[in-house]
């Protein structure tokens, strides 16, 4: 008994000594955790592209993703006012990090919904010198001289060319700042003889080209619009559009442009797919494409046993002759900003700093899956091809793209057959371009007027039905008010 008592006593004393020792140690600092609500279009893709990498270095930040897909998912297939729905989404979800694009960034700045980043950049000595200067300039211009957001990547196109073909035929290679006229003139210098399966083409597109989409590309470089969404007037019968379609038709008629038979590649093996890509297979001198062309070239080289690689060149352009230092084919689709009055602004800034930093850019430079990196100097080439031309031109943004959402969807479905019919007549020389575009404008305007009227009537009847089931008065006077208000909102 005495032995057991002594043994128990020693255990108690030992325990007291241990706990006393722990008590005398400095208290372990409690780990601080923070929450961060981030707005993005898809949760799974967000973590794949950004979230998982950020979490490695920031394990104490709990991220919640609110998906903008819900804006469309809740529309029940009906046309929506996206700008209004987007603002309502932000107001409802109150994200700490707001995802914007170049068409709505300035509106959020003007409305005072974003936190200024300049003071945070200065406080943390955050390096923005190696971020694409044109991006910083554009964001500051839209922000009244201040910075309210950053974009880790952007999309842009350039002139890709097969340097071996140019050398073979003794033709000078493309240069930076070429216009569409110069590019298509250059394409005509290549031979056109031979059958479709073996001959060389001066110009084309990765997935095929037609007169219509060639004209659309030329028009895009100049900022031409086929209708004015503010006045709801069709504007395709102008001198600029006529010159654009004549340039495209002359290029197609010269047989310098590759036009695939039928609808082009419609399915098959990967080998058949790559062999349908004329530029990838070395039979096309030039193509205007995005960075993803380089990925296709690399994959073809890795996948095809008999693939014959060739020297690739890239030139900045094509450009608008009226503004040769800018490009309308540069887009910033992911501008991340901090919501004004966010309670988690510090964590939000850490996230924005990280995804726009050099460490993140180094990781992403291995695949370039989300476009070109805004952080320059980290990667200068991809698969041996110099990427510098993608950064030479300044972005010239079309700020009215969002306005096109006011145009009824039914109009586009009815407009396209009219355009295709008239262009076919022009190509068959049964009509001149001038005559064809005049017909397109006349018929399209009638279609647009009717579509706008039908859309307004649909909204009116829908609002009237909602009012009738809400329990409120539905007498003639109330109905008249509803119809008038609906008409205003549809203008």
General description of the model:
This protein is of the alpha+beta class and 491 residues long. The chain has 18 helices and 17 strands. Strands 5, 6, 9, 10, 12 and 14 form a 6-stranded mixed beta sheet that branches. A 3-stranded antiparallel beta sheet has the order 3-13-4. The longest helix has 36 residues, at 433-468.
Key attributes of the depicted protein:
491 residues, alpha+beta, 6-stranded mixed beta sheet, 18 helices, 17 strands, 46% helix
Layout: helices, strands, pairs:
Blueprint: H1 2-24, E1 34-40, H2 43-57, E2 61-67, H3 69-73, H4 82-93, E3 97-100, H5 105-110, H6 118-124, H7 133-142, E4 149-150, E5 153-162, H8 163-168, H9 180-187, E6 201-204, H10 211-222, E7 227-228, E8 233-234, H11 239-253, H12 270-275, E9 284-290, H13 292-303, E10 312-315, E11 326-327, E12 330-331, E13 335-338, H14 345-355, H15 358-364, E14 372-373, E15 381-382, E16 385-386, E17 394-395, H16 409-427, H17 433-468, H18 476-489
Parallel strand pairs: 1-2, 6-9, 11-17
Antiparallel strand pairs: 3-13, 4-13, 5-9, 5-10, 5-12, 5-14, 7-8, 15-16
Helix pairs in contact: 10-11, 16-17, 17-18
Major beta sheet, specifics? 6 strands, mixed
Low-confidence stretches: 1-29, 468-491
SS strand fraction: 5-15%
Report the total helices.
18
Helix content: 40-55%
Mean pLDDT: 85
- Find the count of extended strands (DSSP E, 2+ residues): 17
Helix/strand structural class? alpha+beta
- The dominant shape is globular
Distance between the termini: 98 Å
Radius of gyration: 30 Å
């Amino acid at each position: 008994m005495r032995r057991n008592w002594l043994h128990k006593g020693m255990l108690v004393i030992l325990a007291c000594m241990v706990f006393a020792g722990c008590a005398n140690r400095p208290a372990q600092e409690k780990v601080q955790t923070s929450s961060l609500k981030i707005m993005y279009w898809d949760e799974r893709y967000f973590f794949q592209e950004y979230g998982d990498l950020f979490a490695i270095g920031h394990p104490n930040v709990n991220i919640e993703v609110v998906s903008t897909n819900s804006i469309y998912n809740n529309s029940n297939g009906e046309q929506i006012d996206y700008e209004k729905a987007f603002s309502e989404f932000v107001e409802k979800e109150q994200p700490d990090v707001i995802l914007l694009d170049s068409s709505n960034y300035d509106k959020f700045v003007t409305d005072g919904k974003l936190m200024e980043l300049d003071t945070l950049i200065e406080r943390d000595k955050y390096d923005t010198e190696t971020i694409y200067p044109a991006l910083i300039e554009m964001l500051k211009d839209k922000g009244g001289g201040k910075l309210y957001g950053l974009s880790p990547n952007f999309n842009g196109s350039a002139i890709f060319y097969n340097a071996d073909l140019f050398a073979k035929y003794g033709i000078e290679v493309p240069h930076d700042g070429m216009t569409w006229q110069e590019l298509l003139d250059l394409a005509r210098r290549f031979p056109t003889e031979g059958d479709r399966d073996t001959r060389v083409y001066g110009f084309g597109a990765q997935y095929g080209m037609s007169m219509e989409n060639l004209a659309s590309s030329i028009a895009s470089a100049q900022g031409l619009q086929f209708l004015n969404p503010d006045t709801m007037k069709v504007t395709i019968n102008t001198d600029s559009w006529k010159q654009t379609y004549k340039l495209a038709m002359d290029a197609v008629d010269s047989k310098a442009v590759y036009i695939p038979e039928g609808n082009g590649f419609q399915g098959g093996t990967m080998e058949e797919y790559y062999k349908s890509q004329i530029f990838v297979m070395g039979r096309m001198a030039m193509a205007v494409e995005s960075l993803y062309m380089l990925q296709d070239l690399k994959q073809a080289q890795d996948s095809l046993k008999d693939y014959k690689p060739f020297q690739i060149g890239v030139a900045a352009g094509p450009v608008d002759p009226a503004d040769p230092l800018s490009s309308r084919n540069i887009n910033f689709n992911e501008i991340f900003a901090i919501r004004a009055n966010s309670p988690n602004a510090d964590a939000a800034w850490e996230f924005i700093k990280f995804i726009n930093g050099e460490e993140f850019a180094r990781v992403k430079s291995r695949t370039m899956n989300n476009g070109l990196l805004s952080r320059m100097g980290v990667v200068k080439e991809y698969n041996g091809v110099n990427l510098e031309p993608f950064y030479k031109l300044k972005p010239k943004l079309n700020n009215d793209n969002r306005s096109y959402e006011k145009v009824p969807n039914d109009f586009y479905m009815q407009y396209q057959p009219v355009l295709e019919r008239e262009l076919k007549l022009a190509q068959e020389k049964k009509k001149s371009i001038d005559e064809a575009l005049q017909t397109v404008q006349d018929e399209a305007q009638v279609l647009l007027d009717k579509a706008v009227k039908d859309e307004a009537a649909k909204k009116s009847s829908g609002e009237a039905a909602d009012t009738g089931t809400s329990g409120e008065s539905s007498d003639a006077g109330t109905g008249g008010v509803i119809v008038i208000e609906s008409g205003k909102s549809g203008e």
